[in-house]
Design a protein that fits this description.
The protein is of the alpha/beta class. The chain has helices spanning about 25-40, 75-95, 105-120, 155-165, 200-215, 230-240, 255-260, 280-285, 310-320, 335-345; strands spanning about 5-15, 45-50, 60, 65, 100-105, 120-125, 150, 170, 190-195, 220-225, 245-250, 265-270, 290-295, 305. It folds into two domains: about 5-175 and about 335-349, Rossmann fold (3-Layer(aba) Sandwich); about 190-320, 3-Layer(aba) Sandwich (Rossmann fold). Helix content is about 35%, strand content about 20%. The longest helix is centred in the first third of the chain and has 18 residues, at about 75-95. The radius of gyration is 21 Å and the shape is elongated. This is Glycosyltransferase involved in cell wall biosynthesis.
Length: about 350
């Protein structure tokens, strides 16, 4: 008798609207492509609670995506949760679900745990961002449960334990190295990549560039990303006379981001918090140096200057800018095999 096909259902607030969408939670896209490759015979289904804003089911690289179309509307939240619970019940009836894999300690973990409690299936929860650092009410649904919690690095694990008391397994994200183009000669001195919001702290980024520009008049700086702080950042750039130094490119397709990375010398990252920092993996494999605050998987090395205050960030950038004719090389921090095998062990536990 043939063994039944494994069925894994992923629960996430949002997901790519099509295979052409490279900017919606890229780390999740990389991960799911690898899971699909590792489990070619398994049935993989994904429920997207809030976006994309559509009700039409579609397939994404061999995974069935079921959008619940919550549209991030508070008044639709209960309706979305009921729809999710009803959909899971139908999926389970058609083909038994073996594992629920929820992302973030949030609504997905709540609905996933309620389903798991009733149907006694496996539950994996990946803690993704500020859900570890800012305790929320959804955590109560995971207390005294059999859910297997995953954090992304040592800093992340410690933060979750401190705020929730939850024990977790560290499984770092991996990079799809085939996405990264060949290394090129640097045309950008300092690059910033990330949302223009208060957490990413681009106000300090601009202050640092203002100091460096005094001794490096031809400094070429680029920022990729957009967000609610864009107007404030633009105003600050103008007030400091840095319009010819800093270029704001807004949001770019993932391939275009990599093209900029392989042409850049330093990734300057002034963020107040990172659960992991996927951009760090991307930068190192793109041959860049990193100057960052002590967030996410930050670890000092020849290629990575980890700093604790603004003056240290300035000095680290100054030191790297003064180096001449330094050869570029790729650094790979975590492998696809390690990441996927660690998750497969949780799926089969």
């Amino acid at each position: 008798m043939n063994k039944p096909t494994q069925h894994i259902v992923f629960l996430t607030p949002g997901f790519a609207e099509s295979e052409a969408d490279s900017t919606t939670i890229p780390v999740l896209q990389v991960f799911l492509k690898s899971i699909r490759k590792a489990l070619p015979e398994a049935k993989l289904t994904l429920l997207a609670f809030q976006f994309p804003f559509t009700k039409k089911r579609y397939h994404w690289h061999g995974i069935e995506v079921i959008p619940l179309n919550g549209k991030n509307k508070r008044l639709r939240k209960l309706q979305t949760w009921r729809k999710a619970a009803k959909t899971l019940k139908k999926l389970h009836k058609i083909q038994k679900i073996d594992t629920i894999h929820s992302f973030w300690i949030g609504e997905c973990a709540r609905i996933g745990q309620k389903f798991v409690d009733k149907y006694k299936v496996n539950h994996v929860v990946t803690v993704m961002g500020q859900d570890a650092s800012i305790k929320n009410s959804y955590g109560v649904y995971l207390e005294n449960s059999n859910a297997r919690l995953v954090t992304l690095c040592e800093n992340h694990q410690k933060t979750l334990l401190k705020n929730y008391g939850f024990i977790s397994t560290i499984i770092p994200w991996h990079l799809d190295v085939s996405d990264v183009p060949p290394l090129q000669q640097n045309t950008i001195d300092i690059l910033g990549v990330g949302a223009l919001n208060s957490v990413k702290n681009y106000s300090d980024f601009v202050d640092i560039i203002a100091v460096l520009a005094k001794t490096h008049p031809n400094l070429n700086v680029t920022i990729i990303g957009d967000g609610d702080q864009r107007n404030a950042i633009e105003t600050k750039i103008k007030s400091l006379g840095l319009e010819d130094t800093i270029t704001l490119l807004g949001t770019l397709p993932r391939n275009d981001v990599f093209q900029k990375m392989v042409q850049s010398n330093i990734l300057l990252h002034t963020s107040h918090y990172e659960s992991f920092g996927f951009v760090f993996l991307e930068a190192l494999y793109s041959g860049m140096h990193i100057v960052s605050t002590n967030v996410g998987l930050a670890k000092a090395s020849d290629k990575w200057k980890v700093c604790h205050e603004k003056m240290e960030l300035i000095e680290a950038c100054e030191s790297l800018l003064s180096q001449k004719n330094v050869s570029k090389e790729r650094v790979l921090l975590s492998s696809e095999t390690e990441t996927i095998n660690a998750y497969l062990s949780l799926y089969h536990a």
